[in-house]
């Protein structure tokens, strides 16, 4: 709930309006899990609140830890489904990779979540619970909507969760702590660009339309060229960052031809390019590009003036790396 909704809810119970701000402080700032912990609210009023409302917090069912420190959590949803969430430590930084849907309807061939199919949207509560209930939640420095699902396909709930994290009565995060990753779903991309100051990452993966369509069905309703044209209408010289995600597949999109085509597609656009190693998944014929090809690809784009990096692979040993999240199989692996 927003502060206004909390205030309205408590006044309907006959409680003073300032109780709404107390609730927001306890839930979003002090991060309590139950009304019983709210010591500046009377016991009687806490009982009234607990009869009508819930704090929305639930622990992960399973926590698995990679050799590199990456953690993957399994959370239950209200609809009896499950989602996976990942935290990635890096020195004094901790990034949480949050899911927005159970499964995904984008059906990218190289993604386990897409192969799972779409099973439902997460509510803003279920999205925020991932942020508040992962181990070490108080140490989170940044959030990426790069978990299960296409965030722009559940835009209303993703927007609400993001705004609650940024609210002054809540966590008071800067929008620059949040990155939304999308395949370029045009239906809500313009809304996001107009309504949000958060960073944007576009999953591109191939600059050639017919080749991109072969592995990313979204190319048909949302061609990469059209997405890039839309992005050119916005100013990226400020603090909001634009990046393109590019998973490299051997013999598919890692040639000098593809490097030139990508540079041409993005020419003049203030952006970064993140090259990502492909992580093999079952029943997929694609193979990872070699380290040598990735370095050559990076160096070509860097010479063209792009900020281009090869993203370090994290959490592959627990199936927590890019493209590996899924809850299509058994409900939960054994806990560590």
Walk me through what this model shows.
- This protein is of the alpha/beta class.
- It folds into two domains: 50 residues, DNA polymerase, domain 1 (Orthogonal Bundle); 257 residues, Alpha-Beta Barrel (TIM Barrel), CATH 3.20.20.70.
- The chain contains eleven helices and twelve strands.
- It has a ten-stranded mixed beta sheet, with helices on one face.
- Strand 1 and strand 2 form a beta hairpin.
- Helix 1 crosses helix 2.
- The radius of gyration is 21 Å and the shape is elongated.
- It starts with a helix and ends in a 26-residue tail after the last strand.
- The C terminus is likely disordered.
List the main descriptive attributes of the protein structure presented here:
336 residues, alpha/beta, DNA polymerase, domain 1, TIM Barrel, ten-stranded mixed β-sheet, two-stranded antiparallel sheet, elongated
Biggest beta sheet attributes = 10 strands, mixed
Give the proportion of residues in helices: 25-40%
Approximate strand percentage: 15-25%
What count of structural domains? 2
Gross morphology: elongated
CATH topology of the largest domain: TIM Barrel
**SSE pattern, N- to C-terminal:** HHHEEEEEHEHEHEHEHHEHEHE
What is the strand tally?
12
Tell me the distance between the termini.
34 Å
CATH class of the largest domain: Alpha Beta
Within CATH, the superfamily of the largest domain carries the name Aldolase class I
Q: Are there runs of 5+ residues with pLDDT below 50, and where?
A: 330-336
Strand order of the largest sheet: 1-2-3-4-7-8-9-10-11-12
Rg over CA atoms, rounded to whole Å, is 21 Å
Structural class: alpha/beta
- Average pLDDT across residues? 96
In DSSP terms (H or I, runs of 4 or more residues), the helix count works out at 11
CATH architecture name of the largest domain: Alpha-Beta Barrel
